[in-house]
Design a protein that fits this description.
With 213 residues, this protein is α/β, with parallel strands linked by helices. Helices cover 31% and strands 18% of the residues. It has 5 helices and 7 strands. Strands 1, 2, 3, 4, 5, 6 and 7 form a 7-stranded mixed beta sheet that branches.
Length: 213
């Protein structure tokens, strides 16, 4: 079975629901399974708070905690993050910065090595108060993927929900996203549909990649 790890950080639940939708898309691809893993809050730091956010904190303790090794023990990878000031969340940044240990393992421990990330398909999804700030955060995570030598998977413009000019939703050709300050339910049905399409795209690329390697 092809394993795709969907690693996310979420505070109010929006990014978590996007992760669930992306996982559904992954499972639509024959032979693929998606595993949700949560990025924990960095030790000693409280979750980001702002007016009205405190009451929306969600408990994700039922989701297994992500470890750095989970970047390696999969065939494909998705990273989901809230967006703060146009950037990935502090917890996501801390988690990925900790991946430096993949390059610094003792020479006798060859079970997890950074070169195993090279070429691995990876994609990004986000959740932000304003849809305009999601793409910069995605690009920031792409920089990390580029440093790892991973293969970046996008959604593309072929998804009808992205090309519909009559709606204002999160998500773009770069990756799924939710516009959490938009009136109404969020993620919206359109945003969920884009996340599922992104999951299918990641599953298809990952399946093709595993056949090559």
């Amino acid at each position: 079975m092809i394993q795709v790890n969907i690693i996310f950080h979420s505070v109010s639940g929006h990014t978590y629901r996007m992760a669930e939708a992306l996982g559904e898309g992954v499972r639509d691809i024959s032979g693929c399974q998606g595993r949700l893993l949560r990025i924990p809050e960095p030790a000693g730091l409280e979750p980001i708070t702002m007016p009205g956010l405190e009451r929306r904190h969600h408990d994700f303790s039922h989701i297994p905690e992500a470890k750095i090794e989970n970047l390696v023990d999969c065939d494909g990878l998705a990273i989901g993050s809230p967006v703060y000031w146009g950037n990935m969340s502090y917890a996501t940044k801390y988690f990925l910065d900790s991946a430096a240990k993949l390059w610094a393992l003792p020479s006798e421990d060859k079970s997890v090595r950074a070169p195993k990330l090279s070429g691995k398909p990876a994609t990004v999804f986000t959740g932000g108060g304003s849809g305009q700030v999601n793409d910069p955060a995605i690009l920031g995570l792409w920089t990390v993927f580029g440093s790892f030598g991973m293969t970046i998977v996008t959604v593309g413009l072929g998804v009808p929900e992205i090309s519909d000019p009559s709606r204002v939703d999160g998500g773009s050709a770069l990756g799924a996203g939710t516009f959490s300050r938009r009136p109404g339910k969020h993620p919206s049905e359109v945003e969920i549909a884009i996340a599922r399409a992104q999951g299918r795209a990641l599953g298809e690329v990952t399946r093709a990649w595993t056949k090559r390697v």
